[in-house]
Write a structure and sequence with these properties.
CATH superfamily of the largest domain: Bordetella uptake gene, domain 1
Number of helices: 12
Strand content: 15-25%
CATH architecture of the largest domain: 3-Layer(aba) Sandwich
Largest sheet: 6 strands, mixed
Mean pLDDT: 91
CATH class of the largest domain: Alpha Beta
CATH topology of the largest domain: D-Maltodextrin-Binding Protein, domain 2
Helix content: 40-55%
Number of domains: 2
Distance between the termini: 62 Å
Order of helices and strands: HEHEHEHHEEHEHEHEHEEHHEH
Number of strands: 11
Structural class: alpha/beta
Shape: globular
Radius of gyration: 21 Å
Length: 319
């Protein structure tokens, strides 16, 4: 018995030492979207302090493509040595398992949760030159002119895509979907008039609203956002069943040592709770969260259960 206790004690100490000694070299954070996208901005804000806590540089590696699937797949197939992590979003981590028949990875099988980092409400906005200043005016225009308007998203199956598809389904209206590689590119298209409306993260939308180039109509969260209290929700505006909120989560390749995963999770949560980092995130319209790996795993399963019937019932497909 004593020998067994000694062996268990030694094993626990070895596991603890593994977590404390890691990392010994720079850590890569893969963001499966372009530079300037909302997950890219989030990663760079968090990295400043996270690198100090880990004692090694954190390198943001933008791997855009296929609506986030390409970069997410890259991490799913990466070596599980604690040197590669992923900061991804709703669609590649949950929704695309329903939307795509041949997804090259399974996020529930090939990745392990680390931490839910943040959420943010999408802002539904129109090009200011349209002269639309309310959700009612926007929906009336869509109904009167089926096919006249284009809308931007951050990719097929993204929450910025699915949210608008639900609006279309609920209002029996039609608009053409134009996917872009990032929210920054989507907003640029909206400002230029290549598309007429979109529901996108506020970190990219609100600067153009303040510049008078876009008109913000509503947020897609269930309640008014403390980040944008002046904007009504879609629910308040006559669409009671619409709630489509972007979220951002850190993941790791399956097989990454659990002590490393748990330490990374703790360090991320600690950084998100720091007043200075929290203020920087709030200024960029991110609501910091921080979670344990188990909490994120439970959250992802809940998201799948909530959205799978919605996607199937609406007949949503990637373009």
């Amino acid at each position: 018995m004593k020998r067994s206790l000694v062996l268990l004690s030694c094993g626990a100490l070895a596991v603890a030492a593994q977590a404390q000694e890691w990392p010994q070299r720079p850590v890569r954070i893969v963001v499966p979207f372009a530079a300037g996208s909302s997950p890219d901005i989030l990663a760079r804000i968090v990295n400043d302090r996270l690198a100090q806590r880990l004692g090694q540089p954190l390198i943001v590696d933008n791997k855009a493509g296929a609506g986030g699937n390409a970069g997410t797949d890259l991490v799913a197939k990466a070596a599980p040595d604690g040197q590669t992590f992923l900061l991804s979003v709703n669609a590649p981590l949950v929704y695309n398992t329903v939307l795509y028949r041949n997804l090259p990875y399974d996020p529930f099988r090939d990745l392990v949760p680390v931490s839910l980092a943040a959420t943010t409400p999408n802002v539904c906005a129109v090009n200011a030159q349209l002269g639309i200043d309310s959700v009612k005016g926007w929906l009336d225009a869509l109904r009167r002119n089926p096919g006249k308007y284009n809308f931007a998203s951050t990719g097929n199956g993204s929450i910025s895509h699915l949210g608008v598809e639900l609006v279309k389904a609920k209002t029996q209206s039609f608009a053409v979907h134009i996917p872009y590689a990032s929210s920054a590119q989507a907003v640029t298209a909206l400002v230029q008039g290549d598309v007429q409306f979109a529901c996108l993260p506020p970190v990219t939308v609100m600067p153009q609203v303040k510049a008078g180039k876009l008109k913000a109509l509503a947020v897609t969260s269930a309640q008014r956002s403390a980040l944008l209290p002046e904007l009504p929700t879609l629910r308040e505006s006559g669409l009671p069943d619409i709630q489509a909120v972007p979220w951002f989560a850190y993941m790791a390749p399956k097989g990454t040592p659990q002590p490393v995963v748990e330490r990374m999770s703790r360090e991320i949560a600690a950084v998100l709770a720091e007043p200075e980092t929290k203020q920087r995130l709030l200024t960029a319209y991110f609501d910091p969260v921080g979670s344990s790996p188990k909490q994120l795993a439970d959250f992802m399963r809940d998201e799948l259960q909530r959205w799978k019937p919605v996607i199937e019932r609406a007949g949503l497909k990637p373009d």
